[in-house]
């Protein structure tokens, strides 16, 4: 079997040079191509002059979905079998062996999507080296190009940033594909920057009003789009964590309460009014 070729994409937004270069160099040397998609206001092309990465500067916050579709087109056009998705602040413990295990499994003819065990997000008990997952985060996920083709690519209009990973996961389920967590391999990642705030010392990622709108809108669209395929646990997460608990965090812990509550309500209205039949991919 010919050697698997892997392309990766990492998105930047108003980043810190030292942290970005440190994180990227943990996996870039082990990829056949890495595209750095920079949504920052100013170009950081000079950061990567002495590296092998391909730098793409947008000059605006175009979010994550356009970056993935861009790399997806590159993968199809240039024969990359797999696509690695990364966030700029994620750190690997052992990326080379993660890639080796993926290549071994794919050489056995097993078509699936792969994730590492994500410290800070995954909390299930590890019982074996390969465990099936339903939902996952983008960072660290490896998607075979033919699987992303089979499910129709990335739905960037409905999910430019938030709930994109959940939409992909549910569409994989609909098309009969599985997600395999390779539990030996660890990625360090946190959702936002959790901190204790307010008189009740509640933990909150403390997202600003723009992100509050985006998360609320996209997760409601995701819920409406995929509720028939959701388990009770899926629904509990999407409704309680993203909607109910978000409301109480704004009300009792976070600053900018009026602005964020307004954004929260606008996100609900936008998510409920989104035309699924006309706009969304299957």
In words, what does this structure look like?
By secondary structure, this protein is α/β, with parallel strands linked by helices. The chain folds into 2 domains: 6-188, Spore Coat Polysaccharide Biosynthesis Protein SpsA, Chain A (Alpha-Beta Complex); 195-279, no CATH class. It has 9 helices and 11 strands. The protein has helices at 17-24, 65-78, 95-107, 145-150, 164-174, 209-226, 232-252, 257-273, 276-279, and strands at residues 6-12, 33-38, 54-57, 82-87, 91-92, 113-119, 130-133, 142-144, 179-188, 195-197, 202-204. Strands 3-2-1-4-8 form a 5-stranded mixed β-sheet. Strand 1 (6-12), helix 1 (17-24) and strand 2 (33-38) form a beta-alpha-beta unit. Helix 6 packs antiparallel against helix 7 and helix 6 (209-226) runs parallel beside helix 8. The radius of gyration is 19 Å and the shape is globular. The chain starts with 5 loop residues before the first strand and ends with a helix. The relative contact order is 0.12. The model has no long low-confidence stretch (mean pLDDT 93).
């Amino acid at each position: 079997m010919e050697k698997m070729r892997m392309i990766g994409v990492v998105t930047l937004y108003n980043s810190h040079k030292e942290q970005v270069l440190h994180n990227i160099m943990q996996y870039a040397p082990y990829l056949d191509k890495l595209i750095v998609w920079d949504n920052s206001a100013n170009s950081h092309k000079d950061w990567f002059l002495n590296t092998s990465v391909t730098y793409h500067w947008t000059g605006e916050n175009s979010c994550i979905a356009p970056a993935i579709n861009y790399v997806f087109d590159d993968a199809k056009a240039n024969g990359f079998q797999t696509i690695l998705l990364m966030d700029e602040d994620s750190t690997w413990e052992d990326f080379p062996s993660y890639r080796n295990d993926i290549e071994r499994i794919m050489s056995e003819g097993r078509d699936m999507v792969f994730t590492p065990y994500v410290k800070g997000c995954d909390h299930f008990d590890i019982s074996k080296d390969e465990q099936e997952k339903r939902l996952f985060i983008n960072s660290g996920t490896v998607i075979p190009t033919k699987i992303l083709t089979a499910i129709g690519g990335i739905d960037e209009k409905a999910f430019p940033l938030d709930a994109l990973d959940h939409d992909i996961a549910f569409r994989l389920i609909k098309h009969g594909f599985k997600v395999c967590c390779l539990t030996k391999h660890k990625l360090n990642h946190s959702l936002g920057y959790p901190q204790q705030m307010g008189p009740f010392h509640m933990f909150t990622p403390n997202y600003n009003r723009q992100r509050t709108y985006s998360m609320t809108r996209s997760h409601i669209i995701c819920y409406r789009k995929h509720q028939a395929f959701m388990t009770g646990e899926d629904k509990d997460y999407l409704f309680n964590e993203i909607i109910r608990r978000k409301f109480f965090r704004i009300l009792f812990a976070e600053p900018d309460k009026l602005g964020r509550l307004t954004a929260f309500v606008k996100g609900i209205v936008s998510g409920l009014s989104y035309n699924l039949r006309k706009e969304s991919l299957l």
